[in-house]
Amino acid sequence: MEKIYISETGPEVSAAIYGFWRWNTPALATEKKVEDIINYNLELGVNTFDHSNNYSNGKIEELFGKVISKSNINREDIIISTKSGIRNFSNKNSKGVYYDLSPEHITKSIEESLKRLKTDYIDIFLLEHYDPLYQVEETASTLIKLLRSGKVKHIGVSNFNVFQHRLLASHLNQPIVTNHIELNLLQSSAIDDGRLDFIKEQYSKPMAFAPLAGGRILNGKDKKAISVRKALAEIAKNHSVNVEQAAVAWLYKLGALPIIGSTDKKRIKNAASAYSVNLSREEWYQLYNAAK
After folding, report:
1. Which of 65, 130, 161, 217 lies 20 to 30 A from 198 at CA?
2. Residue 211 reports pLDDT greater than 70
3. Containing H/E element for 231?
4. Does the structure show a pLDDT above 90 at 52?
5. What kind and span of H or E run contains 178?
6. Burial class (CB in 10 A: 0-12, 13-18, 19+), 88
7. Contact indicator for 117, 64 with CB cutoff of 8 Å
8. pLDDT at residue number 128
């Protein structure tokens, strides 16, 4: 698989990225299974792995770190991204999530992730969700210190709108290399609301999670999903590929880096191999219009 610079100043990543956000069941989250999925991705040329301290409460980071430390994989040959900012709360009345981009939480999260991942540095550290209560100057100062220390190589954001992205960028002395956003044929609001344009203005590429809309593109019963699937089937036939490959190829044509979230090897291969599917401009718009 081809390697691509995620931004003008960012690291070189695989065109497809593997993400562990669906690894949230005890039966799935085992060292053996993590090792198997890492090796399979590397065989396909996928060397970039996306984490969060919120995925299985950090267990996946820990398992990933154990696997890498025991293997003959050189740390320099893989790209690790992780995120922080989403926290859980529970009391006698309710439970849910809240957001915390405070310097204290970010610093603690980085130290814990480094320990779990058994690494001295994180290639891309992303703020996982905008926090309306955070003091941007203080958080930016903390991020700059982490960059200077070498514990973090690059900064990214996740689920930030244009103004939130721009605000943080204005307080950093190093460009934000990516925005981790939901982007697929059934959720293309990033095209319409300016996020994609702003990411490109920063000479970077988005990390696109849920490339198949959580399976809705393949199995959805609603009118929009059926319309898109029909258009995908027609175009997939033209390229001798399947519907899944055509859907991911639509993202590649847009300049996005799809995050593969499946644990199914066949689906992982479909997403990775979609990079070789070159949709025409007409085909890309045919799919876009079907979604609209």
Report:
1. 217
2. yes
3. helix 223-238
4. yes
5. strand 176-182
6. exposed
7. yes
8. 96
Chain center to CA of 68:
20
130 labelled catalytic? no
Q: Active site residue: 5, 40, 55, 252, which one?
A: 55
- The structure tokens 């990033």 sit at 190
H/E/C letters for each residue in 183-223?
Answer: CECCECHHHHCCHHHHHHHCCECCEEECCCHHHHHHHCCCH
CB-based contacts of 249-253 (< 8 A; 24+ apart in sequence) = 249/274, 249/275, 249/277, 249/278, 249/279, 250/185, 250/279, 250/284, 250/287, 250/288, 251/183, 251/184, 251/208, 251/211, 252/15, 252/277, 253/278, 253/279, 253/284
Q: What is the C-alpha separation between 222 and 185, in angstroms, rounded? A: 14
What kind and span of H or E run contains 63?
helix 59-70
Q: Burial of 107 by CB count in 10 Å (0-12 exposed, 13-18 middle, 19+ buried)? A: middle
Mean pLDDT (whole number) for 196-215: 96
When pLDDT is averaged across residues 90-114 and rounded to a whole number, the result is: 92
Q: What is the pLDDT of residue 81?
A: 98
pLDDT score for 24: 76
Measured CA to CA, the distance from residue 277 to residue 280 in angstroms comes to: 10
Chain centroid offset of residue 263 CA: 15
Q: Are 17 and 82 within 8 A, CB to CB?
A: no
